[in-house]
Amino acid sequence: MNTFKYITLGLSLFTVSLLVAQTELKTPPPGGNKKAWVGERIGITDVSIQYDRPGVKGREGRIYGTNVVNKGTVDMRPYGTAKAAPWRAGANENTTIEFSTDVMIEGKPLVAGKYGFFISYDSLECTLIFNKNSTSWGNYFYDDSEDALRVKVKPVRTDKSVEWLTYTFTNETENAATIEMAWEKLRLSFKVEVDLIKTELADFRLELRTGKGFSWQALVEGAQFCAQYNTNLPEGLSWADRAVMGDKNFTTLSCRAMLLEKLGRKAGADSAMKEALPMGSMVDLHQYGRALIAQKRAADALKVFQLNAQKHPKEFTTYIGLARGYSATGDYKNAIVNAKAGLPIAPDPGNKSSVENMIRKLESGKDIN
Q1: Total domain count for the chain?
Q2: Which of 82, 132, 338, 361 could be joined to 146 by an S-S link, Cβ 3.0–4.6 Å?
């Protein structure tokens, strides 16, 4: 028996086993890179990016258009199967980006899902690639037949160098954000937009078929969204009607009135508010009065503030409500009387200062609303 042969074979198998075992342990990524996660919610759409962060490590000026970030595509064979692979937009494993709902990327549609993210670099124009395969290792197995979307953006050169590759969200609005990749002296950015109304309503419809569909608060929330964005008003009214059936109170009735008003059913809206007003708290009535002022319904607002003062006399809030109501109708004399009556009972220095400013404006003949 060749003992040495079997000892050598045993050691080789042990070495292979050891290497395999090592891959199961939690260790830093190879090459001194860093793992990172970044995400943000746009509307109700969750966007998340996972990537490995390479460092410049003294290679400034030798990053782009080199074997670090190749220009266009490169052949990864025989190490992988990709004949024409773009840069993996990071290091090591796939850079991935995930969207919980359908989105628009630079104005082009992309369905919800998780994508491998690649960049075909060029100094004048880069191609951003969202690939359906998010599980392959790096760009070694990239296949352009699996691309879901390609968009072109222009790279921006800067004077300030970023050592570790970074993805950030900027220019956020309620339905959009810009995602920026920065590394060395180059920035790439693309805009992500969501259809806030479509995604929100789709989510409401699902949630209101669960236990939340028996909650008047949840139904009011959906109905108020329809009113706020002036969309799907009949559907919003159906939710408001269900809310009233669940609990007839100031909030449910006033919400129903708001939808009826927007649908042009003024008589029904007035009837709902007539029933709602006696149920309103001091704060409810004050806020409703201010909402009427914002709708340029000064006379109606004053009536609400007067009702509030009858129900809750000599309160700071009701005095200020009357001041706003009279001011909105142009009766600055009575507005000043009520503002001065509320001044001594202001609950804190901030409110006191605010009322003093109101009085100065009224005395100079200016509306305080």
Answers
A1: 2
A2: 132
